[in-house]
Structure formats: C-alpha cells, structure tokens
Amino acid sequence: MADGDQHHQNQSQVVVVMVPLPAQGHLNQLLHLSRLISAYNIPVHYVGAATHNRQAKLRAHGWDQTSVSNKIQFHDFPTPPFLSPPPNPNATNKFPSHLQPSFEATAHLRQPLAKLLRELSLKGRRVIVIHDSMMASIIQDVASIPNGESYTFHSVSAFTIFLYLWEVIGKPKKLEELDVKLPDGIPSLEGCFTVEFRNFIGEQHKYQKLNNAGNLHNTSRTIEGPYMDLLNRIGDQKKHWAIGPFNPTTVAYPNNNSNSSRHMCLEWLDKQEQRSVMYVSFGTTTAMKDEQIQELAIGLEESKQRFIWVLRDADKGDLFNGGEVRRAELPQGFEERIKGRGLVVRDWVPQLEILSHKSTGGFLSHCGWNSCLESITMGVPIAAWPMHSDQPRNTVLITKLLRVGFVMRDWDKRDELVTSQNVKNGVQKFMGSKEGEEIRKRAAELGAAVRQSRVAGEASHMEFSSFIAHITR
User: Fold this and answer.
1) What is the pLDDT at residue 68?
2) Are 239 and 143 in a shared domain?
3) CATH of the domain at 275
4) Distance CA 105, CA 193 (A)
5) Which among 359, 367, 429 has a CA at the least distance from the CA of 399?
6) How many domains does the chain have?
C-alpha cells in the first residue's frame, strides 16, 4: 500500500528543467526563475556544461540561496573543450563573437538532456522544459516524450520581440491598425550581431516552431503591457506570459553580523550621500577600446560627480580556464585623484545590491535587458550607452517610451569616440540637472509600481501564479 502511495505521489509530481544559453545575462535570468518556481515546491533541474553551471552559482546574489538550494538540482553535462579567443576591444562590431565557440559547443548537450528528460518522464506526471530561445535545437527531443512540454524563454524585452516579429512577418499590418505608435528613429539591426550569430539564431528558430507550448518573458505588464498585448495578437498564437521581473524586488543581503561577506563597494556606498553615486558598468560582454576607456576616465573625473566604475573585460566562454585577463590602463594618477569621490572595481560585483543601495542615484549602462530590468525594479534611472544585440532598441524603450533614462551615446554614432567632454557633460546633466531630477522621479515611481506588482494579489504575481497553475494543471 505504501509503495502504491509513493508511486501515486511520484506520478502527480511536476518537474521543471531549465536550459539556459551559456552567457551571464541568460544564465542569471533562468537561475532567478528557478528560484521563483522552486518556491512553489516544484523541483527544478538546471542543466549545462560544468563551467557554466559553476559560473551561474558563483555569481548568484540578491536572494537567500540556502532556502531553495535543495529544490534546484544542477546537472553538469560533458562538452568537449572549446577554445574561446580573447575578447577583441578593437572589433568594428561589438557583439561578443569570442563567445561563439561556447554557443556552438551546446550542441553536445542534446543527448544527455534527452536522457535526463526520459528518466524524469518515468517518475513524474509532467516534465516542463523552459529553454532559452537560443537553445531550441538542444531540446528538440521533448517532442518524443508524451508527458513533456516546452516553453520558450525570451531573454530580451517584449518591445524588442514585438519589433522583430513585426519586421520578420513582413509588417502585414500598419501600426495604425495595431493601435500602436512608435517613436521616430527605431534603430535597424545593422551592427547589432555578427553574421555567425545571425545564422545561429536562424537555426534555433527552425526548431522553436516544432516544440513550443508558450512563451515566457522576463518583464512585467507594469513596464510593457502594450507590447505584451501586441505579442499575443501578432505572434504564433501561442500564449505569452509576462512573469517578471525574475530578479528579487527586495534584496537579501548576506546574513552575517560581520562585514566580511559584503563586497567592498557596498561598504564604500555606505559612506556616501543618498542618491549621489553614479554606477558605471557595461555588462559582461563589452570589450571597450583603450582610447575610449581613457576618455571615459577623464570625463568621470572632470564631472566632479561620485561614481563606482566596474572596469573589467568581457567574460570569456570559460571563466575558469581562459588564461590572463586584460587589465585596462587608466590615466596616470587617476585612482589617487578620485579617491573618496570615485571607486574603480576590476572584478565582478553584486549589481542588484549596488542598484538597491540608497546611495546609488543613476546607472551608466550598456542597456542589456538584464541590467535594464534590475535598474527599473530598483527605481534607478539609466544613462544609455548601447553596444550591440538588443541594446539599441532597449535604449528606445528606456529613454523615449518609459522616459526613465536618457541617451549618453547615440547608436548612430557607435563608430565614433565618445570624448571626455561628452562624458563630463552627460554625467553632469544626468546627476545634477532639473531634467535629470525629473527622470529620477519617474524612475522611482516606475520602480515602486513594479515592486508593488509582485505583491500577492497584484498583476505580476497573479500572472506568475497563472503560469504555475497552467503547468501543474
């Protein structure tokens, strides 16, 4: 009888399998989503190469990992060694082409993933696969599992996805018919991707059409309601869920009475005035020219504004076996001159904790969607300096539609050097002008609305709960 009860319990169990693309902004989002789903007592399996799983766990922050670690099981699947060239700061196209070998190596995950899915399908009532849109070919065997379902996770904004679909399907309807107005100057995709990555995207889209029970977006209707509605109208007739933000809306700091586990930049922020510091970071995939780094340094110094600058090179495909890391040179005596007013950090930082700190008043950012959403959630305005991928279009959303930021560097001028004078003027305008104050006010209001939407009974929480109800039906 006990064995029968156990069998019934196993058969009633729903399990979720996460399949991220091996790049930090993608690994991080699906790890946050794993935490949220596991809070519903649903077991989550997070799969990838050992080096990328290690990267995801090492950089996880903003939530108490011990409370859900037993519900998230990591599977380190073998991949052949992949040689990733160093990031090229002098490349004309700023897309991180050096990561391409690690993207291609994910093809070797297909067989061990299929084996895991078959094993799970025998134990549980339903196997839910949530895969990055760039990993569709890896999960194609879901179609052969009777109790398997796959959902496509889109790592970019709903606005960006809408523009892509509208363009790809040949703009069959005029914008007026869709009852949507777009601002002038929507950037084309020219210069956003390499040819190799465009081909990789095309290959994944072929498989995406085969196995897709629905689409998941790390956004909130509070932020992108109109564009979520449009996706449900012009897409593939599959449901689109806005179940974000995935990142914590209130940050859990390390549970330690001493300060030994806090990052040094947080201790520095503790000593600064409220909303007085500009956080400067260009994400994990940006390799900036030496000449541009020099101009940025001089501009930050001459602005006389307080700042934390994360000055590190782009991630390599394998963080732990990649040889020496490029160390950018700063103007002679720079760090001594800015002591007390500025801080340069050359390692990885807990971005959520910085953005949620009371002393942080602005974010000079590349406008990757991960960073945009974290900044919006914490009510911090953005000075946009897009580099590649979806970032130019995210800039439009942030600056022209949501109006919680302004453009620091025009995408049309991406091949030009941003001079120290332009940096100085932009930072001063952002942190010290009436226009900057109005942007900060709107950012604070939107952040408060997004955080409220995640409260039980509010819009984002209800949409997430509806997705959970759907997969456990």
Assistant:
1) 54
2) yes
3) 3.40.50.2000
4) 19
5) 367
6) 2
Q: Are residue 49 and residue 35 in the same domain, yes or no?
A: yes
**Nearest residue to 310 (alpha-carbon basis) of 323, 295, 293:** 293
Burial class (CB in 10 A: 0-12, 13-18, 19+), 226: middle
- How far is residue 368's CA from residue 373's CA, in Å, rounded to a whole number? 9
Q: Which residues lie across from 365 on neighbouring strands?
A: 281, 384
Residue 70 main-chain phi, psi, to 5 deg: -75, -10
Q: How many CB atoms lie within 10 A of CB 190?
A: 9
Question: Does residue 254 fall inside a structural domain?
Answer: no
Query: For residue 360, which phi and psi values (nearest 5 degrees)?
Result: -80, 125
Q: Does some domain include residue 392? A: yes
DSSP-assigned states of every residue in 446-465 = HHHHHHHHTSTTSHHHHHHH
> How much is the pLDDT for 71?
78
Burial of 70 (0-12, 13-18, 19+ CB in 10 A): exposed
CA distance 353 to 276: 16
251 touches 357 (CB < 8 A): no
pTM above 0.90, yes or no: yes
User: Which active-site residues does the annotation give?
Assistant: 26, 132
Is the peptide bond preceding residue 245 cis, with omega within 30 degrees of 0?
yes
For residues 37 and 99, membership in a common domain is answered with: yes
Residues 84 and 194 in one domain: yes
- Judge whether residue 69 has pLDDT over 50: yes
Query: What are residue 178's phi and psi, to 5 degrees?
Result: -85, -5
* pLDDT surpasses 90 at 128: yes
CA-closest candidate to residue 52, choices 92, 119, 108, 133: 108
